[in-house]
Amino acid sequence: MQIAIQGEPGSFSHEAALKARPEATILPCALSAEVFAAVRDGTVDAAVIPIENSLAGSVLEHYDLLLAHDVAVESEWLLRIRHNLIGVPGTTVERIRQAYSHPVALAQCRRFFQEHPGIEAVAFYDTAGSVKQLMELREPSVAAIASAQAASHYGGEILQAGIEDNAENYTRFFLIRKRERVEAEARPDKVSLVFAVENRPGSLVEALQVFAGLGTNVTRLESRPVPGRPWEYVFYADYQLGDGKAADGALEMLRRHCSMVRELGRYRAAARV
Q1: Exposed site from 113, 116, 150, 260, fewest CB < 10 Å?
Q2: 131, 150 contact by CB (below 8 A)
């Protein structure tokens, strides 16, 4: 199985993809748009994308790309995010003067930088990419912040493990495929969908009342602007599923109140481990 990810080998997306499919061949892509294009064109069987972090929030670009492509969510799972200070073999924390990583990762390690005022946080395009650069430079005063897998992949040494501020740091990932190739879940208990409402008073309330009327629990609601149509929005929703008939009923009733409805996937809700 071939799976596309956004980011360098050793990134958290790489780790998440191997957690989902240990036997998979991973295709790293520089941009998220390239990941979706690879699925669309059949270059890969599927893609693994981060959709939400418990601290940083939603990956908004991926919501937009889900709507723009004829793909669907096959499954979801959670990855515990553990940030590590990584250096070239033989260096020490005391020698480090700069630490490179993605801005989100740096923001999640503020306490570490407060405790080490002599280390400058430097933004980089990717967590794993910062380790790749580190091992090319082989500068003992420079470090990277990334996953243990990135350290292993590029030959870096973990100088200090678990430097993230909050232990409750999880990222939710989707496995997506072309819609016609999604393997249906036998016992789904969660649905993701996107809908648009008419621009009139009460239209959003009417749509949300559909979920309340069916006794389903909306666990997430995210609005995104419609490109080229100022002040118009689409809404992404996740809701808990009692049975398949409830999901079919929700779609049917939503279409009475919405100008557009598209189901993005039915799957098993991820368990935190």
Answers
A1: 260
A2: yes
